[in-house]
Amino acid sequence: MTEAPVLRVDGVGKQFRARWALRDCSLELPRGQVSALIGPNGAGKSTLLMLVTGLLRPTTGTIDVLGEDPTRTGMPTGASFMAQHKPLYRTFRVAEMLRAAATLNRHGRWDAGHAARLVEEAGIGPQERVRELSAGQRARVALAIALGRRPDLLLLDEPLAELDPLARRQVMGTLLAEAAETGMTVLMSSHVLADLEDACDHLVLLRHGRVRLAGDIDALLDGHRHLTGPADGNADLAHPATVHTTTAGRQTRALVRGMDTPPGFRAERPGLDDLVLAYLQEPERAA
Q1: What is the spatial distance between Cα 25 and Cα 47, in angstroms, rounded to a whole number?
Q2: Lowest CB count within 10 Å: 61, 133, 157, 266, which one?
Q3: Model confidence over 179-205: pLDDT tens digits?
Q4: How do beta strands 202-207 and 34-38 pair?
Q5: What is the pLDDT of residue 225?
């Protein structure tokens, strides 16, 4: 029997006055995987995460999170969310912040000992004030609070933004260790692919408010080919399976899905960078 997805989004759109931030988005997240939500700034990543957590209501479509509708119930007990700006009370000491989190989560699965251990492992003292912490330290405290909810689904909006390389490695190390230990599902957004490509096994790509690509990363890479051939062979690439082509001098390069290799072209399995960049540059198709 196939296990139900942790998250199902079906035909979801979100309109702000005359502007659609998301249009007709559908996706499913498999249980126990670490998923990357990728897209340029303004693609709709934060809007999608806020819809999933119940902080916004969709204009169209339905959302199911762990068997619940967040538009009716708010964020389910089994989910946890860390917003991009890592909202912490800057005048609080770290210990006070953890006590506040315990109060706000008193009806859920809050594990005070676990959150405190994560803060201690980060080398952050309980009496330090939030405003005096570095960006990396604030991220570690915010992540400790998100993980203190003991979630089945963890949602992270740009968790590595504004962090230096060492802080990025430390935050990712904590996150991946927790995912490996608990089996929780993770969805984390970024507009920088390098932040996530070594950590994730599932991809959701947003562009102009629509899901352009979604699935297991290995399966997506296996289903595409990177072609290199002569510039005068462009006519062979005029095919619906061609995602994107570039021509420089006498050489044409293209990303294609599910088509035979044209004569004179060499085919290779693409890298994740190649795949994502091609879909971000894919010509708009008629609806």
Answers
A1: 12
A2: 266
A3: 999 999 999 998 778 777 788 999 999
A4: parallel
A5: 94
Distance between CA atoms of 189 and 168, rounded to whole angstroms?
14
| Cβ-based neighbours of 41, under 8 Å, separated by 6 or more | 191
Cβ burial, residue 102 (10 Å; 0-12/13-18/19+): middle
List beta partners, residue 53. none
Angle 15-35-113 from CA coordinates, rounded to 5°: 105
Mean pLDDT of the chain: 91
Domain ranges (residues) in the chain: 7-208, 224-281
- Quick one: pLDDT at residue 194? 78
Query: CB-based contacts of 56: which residues, under 8 Å, 6+ apart?
Result: 14, 47, 50
- Spatial separation of the C-alpha atoms in residues 213 and 228, rounded to whole Å: 23
- If we measure between CA atoms, which residue out of 46, 29, 58, 50 comes closest to residue 189? 46
* Distance from chain centroid for Cα 180: 17
- Please give the sequence-ordered ranges of beta strands (E in DSSP) within 18-98, or none if there are none: 19-29, 34-38, 60-65, 79-82
The number of CA neighbours under 13 Å toward the Cβ of 256 is: 23
Give 64-114 pLDDT, tens digit per residue.
Answer: 999 999 999 899 999 999 998 888 999 999 999 999 999 999 888 999 999
The predicted model scores a pTM of: 0.91
Distances from the Cα of 161 to the Cα of 61, 151, 167, 254, 279, angstroms: 30, 22, 10, 31, 23
What is the CATH number that goes with domain 7-208? 3.40.50.300
